[in-house]
Amino acid sequence: MNVSLRQLRAFVTLAGCNSFAEACELLHLSQPALSVSIKKMEEAVGGSLFSRSTRNVGLSPEGRDFLPTARRLLADWEQAFDDLGRAFSLQQGKLSIAVMPSFAMNQFPEVLVSFRERYPDINITIEDVVMEDVIEAVRQGKADLGITFEPEQLEAVDFLPLFTDRFIAVVAGDSPLARRRKLDWQTLAGQPFIAMNRGSWTRATTDRAMTEAGVTPRQLSEANQLATIGRMVSLGLGVSVVPALCRGQMEALGITCRAIADPVIERQVGVFTRRRHPQSSATQAMMALLEEQFARS
Q1: Domain boundary among 59, 88, 117
Q2: How far apart are alpha carbons 13 and 67 in whole angstroms?
Q3: What is the pLDDT of residues 97-125, one digit of tens each?
């Protein structure tokens, strides 16, 4: 069956007017053009939708039954394209973002404030998960984009670097080590060391650095979250090494942050998107804002 939107609109308009002259005025059509449109629709459905007389026009029983459905179809059509236009113009939409916790707690809130100011009608869902889960969420299409450290291998995702993060040593504010301007791995290994749990990317990175430095911590504790590590360090339970993007979070706990050398750990932080999949207007807008924000930093 081939019924056009133009024919459907003509049917609904004429049904509401019961007058060809009035319907023609509303539709900006000539009477012959409206008559042809209605006739073609009736031919397509296989019967008369209107009963006509010399003085007026009214709906046939079948036309009367069909009118509510026709109105709903027309309204749905118009709403669908209105929603589509609003989505493209960022007047509505949704955005799902997977973010590593250290970024989510520190730099990302300011990004969200800027995004909300520009696009107040976009609904945002944030999943703060570990690096491996960030990448997997993007790969599986569960998140529109992800923000975390660049992994050693990129599989089914694309990576846009934002900035370079250099890991820092963190010690209690009243620790004698806090008086030093720079710390090395040998010094840290001589203290009770608090590390991320085994299996995490951060733990693997610090383990490699210690191996390169040829040291092993004399006492090792583990925690699942950087926030927990920060609290333990602030209470003097040990020292640790964390991404520099956590500096503000650590200093708020009274912790002293120091550069670490021999070796230095530097990693790119950036945005992940699903490879060979088109990005929504909201996703593109967030990526553009992230590039803008960190180009200034």
Answers
A1: 88
A2: 10
A3: 999 988 998 899 999 999 999 999 899 99
